[in-house]
TrEMBL record:
<dbReference type="GO" id="GO:0005829">
    <property type="term" value="C:cytosol"/>
</dbReference>
<dbReference type="GO" id="GO:0005743">
    <property type="term" value="C:mitochondrial inner membrane"/>
</dbReference>
<dbReference type="InterPro" id="IPR036615">
    <property type="entry name" value="Mur_ligase_C_dom_sf"/>
</dbReference>
<feature type="binding site">
    <location>
        <position position="381"/>
    </location>
    <ligand>
        <name>ATP</name>
    </ligand>
</feature>
<keyword id="KW-0479">Metal-binding</keyword>
<keyword id="KW-0460">Magnesium</keyword>
<dbReference type="GO" id="GO:0005759">
    <property type="term" value="C:mitochondrial matrix"/>
</dbReference>
<dbReference type="GO" id="GO:0004326">
    <property type="term" value="F:tetrahydrofolylpolyglutamate synthase activity"/>
</dbReference>
<dbReference type="GO" id="GO:0006730">
    <property type="term" value="P:one-carbon metabolic process"/>
</dbReference>
<keyword id="KW-0999">Mitochondrion inner membrane</keyword>
<comment type="similarity">
    <text>Belongs to the folylpolyglutamate synthase family.</text>
</comment>
<comment type="function">
    <text>Catalyzes conversion of folates to polyglutamate derivatives allowing concentration of folate compounds in the cell and the intracellular retention of these cofactors, which are important substrates for most of the folate-dependent enzymes that are involved in one-carbon transfer reactions involved in purine, pyrimidine and amino acid synthesis.</text>
</comment>
<dbReference type="InterPro" id="IPR023600">
    <property type="entry name" value="Folylpolyglutamate_synth_euk"/>
</dbReference>
<keyword id="KW-0554">One-carbon metabolism</keyword>
<feature type="binding site">
    <location>
        <position position="231"/>
    </location>
    <ligand>
        <name>Mg(2+)</name>
    </ligand>
</feature>
<feature type="binding site">
    <location>
        <position position="133"/>
    </location>
    <ligand>
        <name>Mg(2+)</name>
    </ligand>
</feature>
<keyword id="KW-0496">Mitochondrion</keyword>
Length: 581
């Protein structure tokens, strides 16, 4: 193992420095700010940053955290509290009915499903709103109009309107303020109403039944993507318990669609639909749809996107039918019932050219994304469950093989990994061992150690010490998996590719931040990271020497996975956002 001494010997000092920076950031402008519905004071270059730092206080607001803890033992209180905050913000649940909502939940693929759906309906000329989580680089990504994150000026304007109303009423409500995600959900509803979107696509945060997005009363259609085990402390530790939570978004009389699910999960969804009096259909295979162009091309890579695309097609078609064909009601001619079965099977249909184009044009950063910067190719996927990691590995094998066949010489392969929360990172790392990485690199989801106020990516809910400890645990798990005999099962070997670097056990390294990890891995071969404006963390001679094979390889291939927050931190450095937007 190669371990940066800064992590071990100076971890506490590093953490203290970051905490000091974060706290200073969170206080920017607070004493001078008047929280009201009036226009915020003009502070050139600071107003958006001031908004984000104020928003971040809702991560650590003591009353908000206490509220979350109390509601976990009584989850039904969550929606009651959400209604109260909504009303304090000047909105009503009745107003949300006018948003013509598509509501989507699931464990894996719900964001991609929403992205496909949004692109299809936008291609028809509708003005779309899209609320998703988490964000990768900037929080504005969570609230999109016509596929684009709302601008800083618009975000700032609407933020102060909602924050001001909540702040002005908090004394009459036990000084409570909504927690971070709950506030952003209210803000998204406000933005979509003010911007007069034709429809809003709302991605559930966690679960469904008690998620704060489930304050929606009458969506036009609901969807459930692939279910799996995640967030077990909140949703339960079996697929059946999780399915019960996800089915909580069903509404009486509102059509719902699901991709094919494990037998136990599908049975629970059917029971939930029957109980709520919601018609539920299972989506067909993507290959069952007809198109004049023959096979359908997807803008998102990976075979697992086929089920997401099929779900998006059913959601889009159902929404369009209600909008155009049925006078505001639903048509049912597209469905069939299997004999001797209570399962409703949604029928495939002929895709319009607009639908075909929408599927092909869909983009969803950080999921099966490939970026090439000269000799360095980044494979980014925010997989953070066992099933999503298996899908990530299948995609990586295919894409890496394609790139390696085109290489004129040896390729160095590097894993950059982090995982957060309750996820079983050791189990995910075991899946990755047979991929023949030359280096396994670990770092926390901290963008850079010497940082300006990166408020968009601050997380106050976990300490820096805990993040660094988790990285060290991940590194030990990797070494244990590598030392437990030959784990390189042939089923994961990349076939028909050029040889990688000479076979050897992967070196492991732990870095204190994402930028220092990227700079070491790329060894100056990515001009974006070699920008003199970026701080360079000094490393010892021995660590520098370990990078010789990376300097000598014809190409460097880096798989970045385990956490969407890690992927977002990497994208911040690889694709810096336009500060004017």
């Amino acid at each position: 193992m190669v371990l940066l001494s800064q992590v071990v010997r100076r971890g506490s000092g590093f953490a203290a420095r970051l905490r000091k920076q974060d706290w200073a950031c969170s206080l920017v402008g607070l004493s001078a700010r008047y929280y009201s519905t009036k226009t915020a004071p003009e502070i050139p270059g600071m107003e958006y940053q001031d908004v984000i730092c104020t928003l971040n206080t809702l991560q650590t607001n003591a009353s908000a955290l206490e509220q979350v803890r109390r509601e976990r033992s009584h989850p039904q209180l969550q929606l009651h509290a959400m209604r109260g905050f909504l009303e304090r913000a000047g909105l009503t649940v009745e107003e949300l009915d006018h948003l013509n909502i598509i509501h989507v939940t699931g464990t894996k693929g719900k964001g991609s499903t929403c992205a496909f759906t949004e692109q299809i309906l936008r291609s028809y000329g509708f003005r779309t709103g899209f609320y998703s989580s988490p964000h990768l680089v900037q929080v504005r990504e969570r609230i999109r109009i016509n596929g684009q994150p709302i601008g800083k000026e618009l975000f700032t304007k609407y933020f102060w309107q909602i924050y001001g109303r909540l702040d002005e009423t908090k004394d009459a409500h036990g000084r409570t303020m909504p927690a971070y995600f709950r506030f952003l959900t209210i803000l998204a509803f406000h933005v979509f109403l003010q911007e007069k979107v034709d429809l809003a696509i709302i991605e559930v945060g966690i679960g469904g039944a008690y998620d704060c997005t489930n304050i929606i009363r009458t969506p036009w259609v609901c969807g459930i993507s692939s279910l799996g085990i995640d967030h077990t402390q909140i949703l339960g530790d079996t697929i059946e318990k999780i399915a019960w939570q996800k089915g909580g978004i069903f509404k009486q009389g509102v059509p719902a669609f699901t991709v094919k699910q494990p037998e136990g999960a599908l049975a629970v969804l059917k029971d939930r639909a029957r109980e709520i009096k919601c018609p539920l259909w299972v989506c067909p295979e993507l290959e069952d749809y007809q198109a004049d162009c023959g096979s359908v091309h997807l803008g998102l890579a990976g075979h697992h996107q086929h089920s997401n695309a099929s779900l998006a097609l059913q959601l889009s078609q159902t929404w369009l039918q209600r909008r155009f064909l049925s006078g505001g009601t639903y048509k049912t001619f597209r469905t069939t019932t299997h004999e001797n079965s209570s399962i409703l099977q949604a029928s495939s249909f002929k895709l319009s050219p607009i639908m075909v184009k929408g599927l092909a044009d869909t983009e969803w950063p950080g999921r099966n994304q490939t970026l090439t910067h000269g000799a360095v190719t980044y494979f980014l996927d925010g997989a953070h469950t066992m099933r999503s990691m298996q899908a990530c590995i299948r995609w990586f094998r295919e894409m890496a093989a394609q790139h390696e066949r085109k290489s004129s010489g040896p390729v160095a392969r590097v894993l950059l990994f982090n995982a957060t929360g309750e996820r079983d990172s050791a189990a995910m790392l075991k899946l990755l061992v047979p991929c023949h990485f030359d280096y396994a690199v670990f770092c926390p989801n901290i963008t850079e150690s010497i940082s300006s106020c990166n408020a968009d990516q601050q997380n106050f809910n976990v300490s820096v010490e805990n993040m660094l400890t988790r990285c060290l645990d991940n590194e030990r798990s990797w070494r244990l998996h590598n030392s437990a005999g030959d784990n390189r099962g042939p089923q994961l070997l990349i076939e028909d590719s050029l040889p990688l670097l000479q076979e050897r056990k992967a070196d492991t390294l732990v870095f204190p931040c994402i930028l220092s990890a990227l700079q070491w891995i790329t060894q100056g071969r990515d001009t974006v990271l070699a920008d003199p404006a970026k701080s360079l963390l000094p490393v010892s001679t021995s660590i520098s020497a370990k990078g010789a094979p990376l300097r000598e390889a014809t190409e460097i291939h880096i798989l970045i996975t385990g956490s969407l927050h890690l992927v977002g931190g990497v994208l911040k450095h690889l694709e810096p956002p336009d500060s004017s937007n």
